[in-house]
Structures are given as structure tokens and as C-alpha cells.
Amino acid sequence: MRIIVILIITTLLGNIQAMATPFQLTQEYELIAKQPTIEEFWQRGEFSSFKSYDQLDIHYALFFKPENTQCIVVAQGRSEGYLKYKEIAFDLASNGYNVAMIDHRGQGLSERELLDRDKGFVKDFNDYVLDMHQWLSDIVKPKCSNDMFLLAHSMGGTIAARYIQQFPQTFNAVVLSSPMISVNGGSIPDWFGRPFIKTSHFIDDLFSEQSAYFFGHGPYKEKFFKDNDLMQSEIRFQLFKQTYQQFPQLKLGGVTWAWLNSAVAAEALIFENLARIKTPTLVLQAENDTVVSNAKQNQFCQQLHALHSQSCPNGQPTVLNNALHELLFEIDEIRNEALNQTLIWFNQHSHE
């Protein structure tokens, strides 16, 4: 009943809220009516898995048409899986792209490394990079006959930055949506936070084989729209919530000391190796983001642009006003702008 009410409201406001776009993008007011079409598209996808270097099952989804010669790889954020990204995959495919999505180890449908499935854990962020490289090399690249682009969100942005530092020839261009260059530490300064996390992880590692939750984190808890800090689109929030109810294996709790320590280490490596980023990179920043650090995105863009002027135009992220963290699931005005900027950037760096 709630979604029906949302549908009526968004239908009335749809033409006002929807930002004019040169691309085919789904609008909030038509999302419910369009679900059968999106599901029909989804059923034509290829869903499979491969074994990582350390024998974890890593799941992925592919949407390829012979007539589409350009590919967009999507790297999701922490706790997300490709099942959440049906609308995104549909919209990208509707604009003539093949789409490839990977569930990072420890989340989505991919295998967890700990017995407690709720714990957000990784030993080293470079494991995410190695998984992606294996998947791209063995499965995705052979299917892509021309350009390849990377769209990465949040934690996926950390993985993307480290990936293009190590494998700079893979993608024509990259878009980082609300990238987790650094987690949002609030008022805690780096000089205190970094050594504290490293020391706490060291102590935790001595006494626990399964890595403890970071302070204030715990098992999965269901969120409600009014309390969420991710998106302002209620209909998109309810649809993704329904997905996690339908597939409870997707649910993931808070982060562990091991994950956080690895995230801090990855941030340091990103800045230490900025000169290695040769791939044209655009950063989309959510103005009201409380999940990741916008200040670190600003620093990343300023330094990267100084090294490689083809990235971060004017040395700054592209700021989406009034946006929360999940730009790709926001209200139409924000989501349309994010996807417009993404596809324009990819078009600018296409060889076709």
C-alpha cells in the first residue's frame, strides 16, 4: 500500500522533478509500472561465479548484446550486491552499453571470509582489486570488443582507484560516485584516528580469529526511510529494501577492525600512488554526504588534476547539490544529473 501511495505522488510530481536528460533514464513516477520490463531485461542476463586466487566464490552478472560494443563495469559500495542495481543496469543497457557487475568478496552473493556472515570483513583491500582483475581478464574483456568504462560507487571507488593505479590500461575512463577515498571520521583528526585504528586492529588480531566489530557496529539491522542517510528517493529505498527481504543472504552488518584498518591502508596507498592514475577520472560528490569524507575527495581531485589535467576538471569534484551518499539511487533530479555526467564523460573518452 505504501508503494502505491508513493507511486501516486511521484506520478503527479514526475514531470516537475525529472531533470531533462539526453539519455534514456528511468524516472521515479514510472518505476513501479516499469518493474515487469526491468525484470524481463534482468532475466536475459548471465549470472555466474568464479574462484578467486584463495578459492572464494565471487559472483557476477553480465548483460551483453552483440550490437553493443562498449562496456560499463559497475563496482558497488560496501554491503551492496548486484541485485540492488537492476534499475542501473537497465538504464545503462538502454543507452547502448553492455553491463558487467561484480559482487565483492564478503558481500552480495559472494562468499564470506568469516563464519559470521554479518561481519564486514576483508584482510586487505587489494584482495578486491585482485578479484576484479581476475574477473575482467578472464571473463569480461574477452566479451568486450571495444571501449571499457568503470562506474564505481563508495567503497567501489576505493577499489577503482587502487585498480587503475595498478592496471592503468584497462579502462578508457572512470567515474567515481561518492567515492570512499576515506571514511567519514567526523571530527577525529587523522593524526589520532589512523594510529588508533592500526593499534586497535593489532590488539584485536591477537585475541580474535574472527575480527571484532568496530565501535558502534554490529549485526545487520533493518533501516527505515525516515532514518536513512543514503538517499532521498523513498520509492527506490523501498524497492532496495524489498530486495534484501527477498534475498536475506545479501544482508551485511557493520565493519570490523580488520576492514577499517585495511580501508585506512588503502587510502594511504591511493595518495602515495596518485601519479600512477593515467585513466581520465571524474569524481561525483554528494553535497550532504555523511558516509564518506568529502574533504578527502576534494584533496584527491586537487592533487590528481595537478598531476594529470585530464582528470577532475578544474581540480575539483563535480558536486551534486542537496544530494545524499547514494547518487545512483537518489531522487530523479540528482540521479539524472549523476548519470548524465557519467555518460557524457564516457562519451568524451570513447574511441567510437
Net shape: globular
Quote the beta fraction: 5-15%
Q: Main β-sheet, in a few words?
A: 8 strands, mixed
CATH superfamily placement: Alpha/Beta hydrolase fold, catalytic domain
Element order: H for helix, E for strand: HHEEEHEHEHEHHHEHEH
Radius of gyration, in angstroms, nearest whole number: 19 Å
Low-confidence parts lasting 5 or more residues at pLDDT below 50? 4-19
Number of helices: 10
Strand order of the largest sheet: 1-2-4-3-5-6-7-8
State the CATH topology: Rossmann fold
What do the pLDDT scores average to? 91
The helix/strand class is alpha/beta
Q: Helicity, in percent?
A: 40-55%
Question: What is the C-level CATH assignment?
Answer: Alpha Beta
CATH architecture: 3-Layer(aba) Sandwich
Count of the separate structural domains: 1
Q: Quaternary arrangement of the chains shown? A: single chain
Report the span from N to C terminus.
47 Å
Compute the number of strand runs. 8
Give an overview of the whole structure.
With 352 residues, the protein is of the alpha/beta class. It has a single domain, classed as Rossmann fold (3-Layer(aba) Sandwich). 41% of the residues lie in helices and 13% in strands. The chain has an eight-stranded mixed sheet with strand order 1-2-4-3-5-6-7-8, sandwiched between helices. The chain is globular and about 55 Å long. The chain starts with a helix and ends with a helix. InterPro entries: AB_hydrolase_fold, Hydrolase_4, MAG_DAG_Lipase. GO terms for molecular function: hydrolase activity. Residues 68-332 form the Serine aminopeptidase S33 domain.
